[in-house]
Structures are given as structure tokens and as C-alpha cells.
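task queued by scheduler; priority normal; single chain, no ligands, no partner chains; default sampling; output format set to C-alpha cells
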Amino acid sequence: MKIYTGRGDEGLTDLRDMSRVSKTSPRIEAYGTVDEANALIGSIRPSGYDDVDEWLETIQNHLHIIQADFANPDPDPDDPQIKEAHIDALETMIDTADEALDPLQSFILPGGSEAGARLHHARAVVRRAERRSVSLAGTDPVNEEAIVYLNRLSDALFTLARLVNKRDGVPEESPSY
């Protein structure tokens, strides 16, 4: 199988149902931004912490499901889709990581150790993916669970950034107003 086909040379791409759309369509923007977040999360692994790496691997697989989900304008019941169980798993990750942290007292500046800063960066990209997904939902039917997942994922990445920074001995900094 060749990696290049030439089918996208004129600014169109195939959806999962083989319909052709502009590479600037809201659907492509949504799953393309999810892909960007997924690649960024991949750059964090290995983080130096086995539990964090396992969580990130799970998240990357979930994001791949969202990409397939968004690329399919008319999914069948057996097609890949994010479900409530995926969100529940993410919330369990958040709760587990949060137990190891001091309660948050104020906003914090994104940054810290290399892995912590990358997790904050990934969080910001996930927020953009969420915005693109909400925009898509305004024009086309989408799996609402995928949007909820992205919302929760930004919280998870924030919590993981705090956890990694704590483990790396990097203190949190609050913004000065």
C-alpha cells in the first residue's frame, strides 16, 4: 500500500463513508485537531512514570476512536464510537491522580518540567479540539459523548500535568494580576 494517493492534491479528502469533502470542512477541522492533540500526547511518552504512560496510552487510543467517530458522518452501531464507559474511565484516571495532589487553591501558570509543560500544551490543544467539535455539532450530527470526552480530557491533562510536576519537584506558580 502506498502512503500517497494524490487524491488530496486538490484540497479534498475522503470521509469514512468515502464521500469527498474539503480539507477545511468543520468535520476535518475537528478530527484533525484531535489528531494534533494525539500526536502531542505521543511526544510526552515516556513521561518517566509508568502509571502516567499507561493513562496516556489509553487516552491516545480513545482519541483515535474519536478521530474515526468524527470521520464517519453516518455511523453504524458497530462502528468505533466513544461511549460513556470511555468518559467514566477518564474520570477514574482524574480522581486517582487528584488523590496524590494538594487541593488547588488558585489558577496556576502552565509549565513546569518538560513532561508537565507538554501536558499543559496538550490540554490547550484538546480545548481547541473541543471548540472545533462543538462547531461541527452546530452544522452536522456528531456523537455528543465525544465532545464530553474532550471536555473531560482537558481536565485530565491538567491534572496529569500537576501530578508530573509534583513528582518532578517543580512547584506550581500562580499568576500575578
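post-processing summary
- The chain has five helices and two strands.
- The radius of gyration is 18 Å.
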